[in-house]
What we know:
The complex is a heterodimer of chains A (256) and B (181).
Chain A: H1 4-23, H2 33-59, H3 67-73, H4 83-86, H5 98-119, H6 125-153, H7 157-171, H8 174-177, H9 185-189, H10 200-213, H11 235-250
Helix pairs in contact in A: 1-2, 2-3, 2-6, 5-6, 5-7, 5-10
Chain B: E1 14-18, E2 24-28, H1 29-34, H2 46-49, E3 52-56, E4 65-69, H3 78-92, E5 98-102, H4 115-124, E6 151-155, E7 163-168, E8 174-178
Parallel strand pairs in B: 4-5
Antiparallel strand pairs in B: 1-2, 3-4, 6-7, 7-8
Amino acid sequence: xxxxxxxxxxxxxxxxxxxxxxxxxxxxxxxxxxxxxxxxxxxxxxxxxxxxxxxxxxxxxxxxxxxxxxxxxxxxxxxxxxxxxxxxxxxxxxxxxxxxxxxxxxxxxxxxxxxxxxxxxxxxxxxxxxxxxxxxxxxxxxxxxxxxxxxxxxxxxxxxxxxxxxxxxxxxxxxxxxxxxxxxxxxxxxxxxxxxxxxxxxxxxxxxxxxxxxxxxxxxxxxxxxxxxxxxxxxxxxxxxxxxxxxxxxxxxxxx
Amino acid sequence: xxxxxxxxxxxxxxxxxxxxxxxxxxxxxxxxxxxxxxxxxxxxxxxxxxxxxxxxxxxxxxxxxxxxxxxxxxxxxxxxxxxxxxxxxxxxxxxxxxxxxxxxxxxxxxxxxxxxxxxxxxxxxxxxxxxxxxxxxxxxxxxxxxxxxxxxxxxxxxxxxxxxxxxxxxxxxxxxxxxxx
Lengths: 256, 181
């Protein structure tokens, strides 16, 4: 028997968890050491949000599950994150394309800032509490991404080209963030959850402002086929989970 | 909550403890918890930070102790260490039935950091957080080493989730700044 509230909380939690896992890949790979630190910190903020949400989702399960149970012992089809956050950082320019990182962070943080801002008014106490902390943190994430997108977009011809290309590939995954079909109607009626479609105009405006300042254009691309909210993921998700989960699964019950 | 963000429970519960020579003394349970230092910046206690929210004995005096703490940033890794340190601190005064509870609400803010805490931060070499306002301003910070206001931000993210990295143009020393949130 599916629990709609648990499903909703897991969707938010998994976006943060998988984004945090990917963000960790930038440590020791960023263009400069301050950026290693910045992306590491951003990943840590996201992980913290994931931990709070996973812990809460676990209490809604029967029997109760811990945050670790949910992070390490669910299989791919049970994860409810969007495709945006599970994708690798690779592009035609290399395995870890910094422009992709900033384009993705701009999309994610702008979306999350609107989402958590709206969830401040959630009638669910825990969701509202997580949102109250997260909204302040993702505001810093958005600022960080915006600074880089502007610097790279309004930079050299090379940086401009690469930044525009990165936006093009990330923008295919924007629509999935704002598809509210996964949110249970009762949760919306009770004002526990937010229909992400209502956040799209603000997202377009804020992201558009950053891109305009960066002399970049909002990509006009065909949206990718999504499915993440239903547990249908891309090939890259399997590799990500293998890396994230193998240690725990190799030594079940182990503790530090 | 008063202007310093201190909450209930700090005066109410008083416990007796035995020191190493078997002599009994009086020390409030709040004081035991409040003395736990921040693992990252040990000149600050969790009371200075506003991380410690309450210490209560819900089953009556001498019974189970429930300590409530709140994280600064969502992912703050110091919370696990603080929890362990609290359990150790209470065990040292003979209280082993202790639950450490994490609360997310109300959301922690740098406004809860005591003035004493801010002074200790500055002394330690970290620029303390300023007041939060409706408009995000990049105000000039004074260098904790030489006091010059001629400083600039190197990175919005520093050595921990709560800090940003600055450098002083006058004395050239880098320093951390505790971000207002």
